[in-house]
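Consider the following assembly input.
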Amino acid sequence: MTAQETAISVRALSVGFSGRTILDDVSMDVPRNSITMIIGPSGSGKTTLLRSVNRLNEEFAGCSTAGSVKMSFSGTAVDIYRDLTPNELRRRVGMVFQSPNVFPFSIQKNLLAPLRLVHSIGRKERHQRMERVLREVELWEEVCDRLGDNAVTLSGGQQQRLCLARALALSPEVLLLDEPTASLDVRSAGKIEELLTKLKERYTILAVSHSIRQVKLIADRVVILSGGAIARTLEHRDFQNPGLLEELVEEIF
Amino acid sequence: MTVRPERLFVAFSWLAAGLVAVSVGVLVAYLLMRGWPVLSSALLFGDTPWLAAVLGSEPVFDGIYPAVAGTFILIACSSVIAIPFGICCGIYLAEYAQGRLKAIFSFMVDLLSGMPSIVMGLFGFALILLMRRTLFGHANTSLMLSSACIALLILPYLIRMTQVALESLPDKARLLGLSLGYTRWQNILHVKLPAASTAIFSGIVLSIGRAAEDTAVIMLTGVVANAGIPRALSDKFEALPFTIFYLTAEHRNDTELQTAFGCALVLLFITGTLFFVSYFIRKNLQRSWGQGE
């Protein structure tokens, strides 16, 4: 694993909404093919930081962004705010929301429609990709005989895996996850965590997390946000020391 | 002693609500009492066999069938004009309009929705007068003119329902398509409109109800008594609300007044059905956007 190669490089990023500063002068690096997790008290700007990486903040009224976010796509670094349109960017950066966010359509259409609209690939390949990603998130066995059912009939954990599959189907290079297990039971959360550990071999993952247990279990790097600024950045080896992360969190939160 | 005023207030509120319920009850009961006895196929078709009347092979003289048919034709024509414009205008206001322009357009829509229907009718009437004096000497009040004016009348409902339906979608629905890399247009067409469709559709049904019951607009723009079923857009036509009006205003005997009550029941049935369809759509089809929010 080339853990030191940087996939996302955030420099002096400040984001505000209608004059209210949410992120203030944030700089950080996200290594390729690893899991970087953002933690912090509520209102510390975690979700805003995540959304600045796929420029979703711009969809809210009164948003202003300063600083730069550079991403390396297939070896070339691009400034995502200068060199790409939001659409071009979002096609390369998958996102999974906090609570399962499926389209209220069939399971099949949840995967096929984005493929048709975003990549306009042929019918046969769309179906092949659907099966591949459903197997990748270990959902295929559970849904292969009910692909026509409405996706909202799936359990929360299944829906979240479907969302993950939908993001993967579009072949992104980076995955953004906003507390992907916050609304799930322990079992379903465990399944997603297991999946993420496998997926980091092929994708760069940046996730917001609410659980120290989860961070210790799967993160390679953790960024602690407080009041819109980075309080600490820790590497895997640092926060494995028993009690260290807990102490820091206690102190910062 | 703060209890007393509160009790008085609660009692008055109860009374107010009760009064409304009683009023509606009395109204419907009275309509039923007067209208029910005349409800029969003779009310609709007179002496004409119903099949011949529906197929249009024999004219209906004594029945209100031409008025029922006229009302439905009017609804259809005005919907064809108003629905596309209303929905597209709502999409524009919700998705594209910004700042000053949005404020101006919103004000115009508010102005239109506040316009009394008789003014709309007068406008249509004046338009025909103008046309007759200028380029179109043969222009006359007609089904086409009524439909256009009714369309104008229901347009603000459609615009607002569409706009509100789109603007009140939760963030998760709004952001999902965009996060997948959809273009703005793809997101509107494939995510937001389907998600807002139940609300928009029930708005359509309600505005159709409004089109069915308006009298003032059509009185000045093309409705007449005993016109029969219109064969062309340039024909005059009959409609239920107008039939009720002239039967009541000019009745020579009690039978004609009875017929007006029968007519009112039929109209109430049509608009009531539309209201329940809209209610049903909202209650039963709105399971749309997941459960997690």
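Chain A is about 35% helix and 30% strand. Ask yourself how this observation constrains the way the partners meet.
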